[in-house]
Amino acid sequence: MNKKQVETRENNVDISSTVAAQSLTGMTRRLLMGNDAIALGALRAGVRVVTGYPGTPSTEILETAAKEQRPGVHVEWSVNEKTALEVAAGAAWAGARALVTMKQVGLNVASDPLMSLNYVGLKAGLVLAVADDPGPISSQTEQDTRRFAEFAKLLVFDPSSPEEAYIMAAAAFEYSEQIGRPVILRPTTRVCHSYAAVEILPDITVNAPAPIFDRNRERRVIFPALTRAQKPIIEDTLRELSSSLGDFSGNQLSGNMSARKGIACGGVSYAYAQEALKEFPENYKLLKVGTVPFPQTLGIEFLAGLDEVLVFEELDPVIEDALVALCGREHLQPQILGKRTGTMPNVGENTVEHMRVVLAEFLGMAQSTSCINSESDLPPRHPTNAPARPPVLCAGCPHRGAFFAVKQACRGKRAVFCGDIGCYTLGNALPLDMVDTCLCMGAGISAAQGLKTADPDLESIAFVGDSTFFHTGIPGIINAVYNKHDILVCVLDNRNTAMTGSQPHPGLGRNAVGEAAPELSIPAILEGIGVAELVRVNAFDVPAGTAAVRSLLGKSGVRVLIFEGACIAVDKSHKIAAIVDTPACTGCGACIRVFGCPAITWQDGKAAIDPILCTGCGACVSVCPAHAIAEGAS
Length: 634
Description:
This protein has about 625 residues and is an alpha/beta fold. It is built from 21 helices and 23 strands. The strands form 6 sheets. A 7-stranded mixed beta sheet has the order 3-2-4-5-7-6-12, sandwiched between helices. Strands 9-11-10-13-14 form a 5-stranded mixed beta sheet, with helices on both faces. A 5-stranded parallel beta sheet has the order 15-16-17-19-18, sandwiched between helices.
């Protein structure tokens, strides 16, 4: 590292304490989910501030930090990922180690401050735990945070197991302080949600003064001059890391050093490969890559003497591309096989079963007619006779009544329904069919404005949940008021962040650690913004909801209808199940074909209600044209 680099750093922390700590014998082992391990690893490293926004598969990291209730550690669910990172940056500028948690699409929201933060630098370590979701299983996109890190010029640790995530979480803070910049810890879904017996190591002693902010406008205020000065330093740092990271425990070379074939893996794919390789003789070199940038010195050692290399990784061909570039730069000849060559699928997760098929061909243990080019060429992930089970709104969900009311009111009109991210995205499913667009958090409100502008004859209606309203819904409504857009916004307030596990938000009166907090009023905020007309209605009262929607259609300006009804996950005061008057039931099927509540079934040509599933919400009563459904007697 050159003198100029060292002089620009505020903390040149020796990382040897982390390496030494790995060899200590802990007092206990705990069965931990990967996300739990990350949180405990950060607490072990002396984290003082933990912020984030819930999103599967990352959510439990912050929840575990909150449950631990360590003295002097502040934990908060922030209103969105951008705000979470900015709070953490402020803490790190003052000298307190900070952790930010989010899923991969949340990094898009946090990208604006993150890009600049890498140039402005830090006083204490700041780690972003960004959970990627191969598949995707519960996300809009299957993006790879390693690619974002390359773009942002950041160091990434890519754990292959909960045990390694625990070690890497602590190491990330020390590396962050050594280079004076943010570091990303990138677990994937199977690391986040798998369990392992993790050895709990002693806490790391952080030799740092009490957090105090020292004014340093030359380093903390980003101007073009600062960016120009820092860019070459960032590039030099990445170059040096690429050369030195071969000594980091997350990067390893093993196997038969005289073999002519090599296998390179990253993240959880390394754990899969270890399992799959148990069936094959050790006639290969095995490279484990746990960092971005790629450990070039170790990579050259790995490539020496090889004819072919097979790469397993999720999601993008990051390791594969690094190996191809290294071969070109060093004039090495091995053929690199992976996603670019069609040897591995370029979508979805890897599995042990899939790897066995590819390894058999690669290691000459079986014959195959062709490379595996797509998911269809691989063994099925699930039994082919398994019934399809698409996600649906729960029985008793207030969103069903809200969607049905809007649908009834808009019958016969040209209307577009702009959805958003949350449980209510499931409003797109039949029979409701009430979500025409869904882009990202908060986008439904803004998209509705563009649709109405382009097609003025449309009734443009947007749906947003209460948590998403606070996340990124407010700016869209401000934009609509300011620019005089004619839209109807339906706020589906179920008093919950339901899809990610009932985390609190600013409208619920409690914070991440369960303490009482100011309860922000959605109606008061809307009134303060200047919404033209605001109506509140019980989401389970379908006739009242339908009338409210009709009263707001066709008007100008921004109108907001708040459908209020608690999620069944938080409201345990369920009433007696609804009942069907079987003789009165005509068998028309409207309750199933139009309303679609999972508690309503079909028996002998008549409707029936499952008393176990039914919550007694009463929303279905008005749906039956024969008036054969009634609320249960109390």
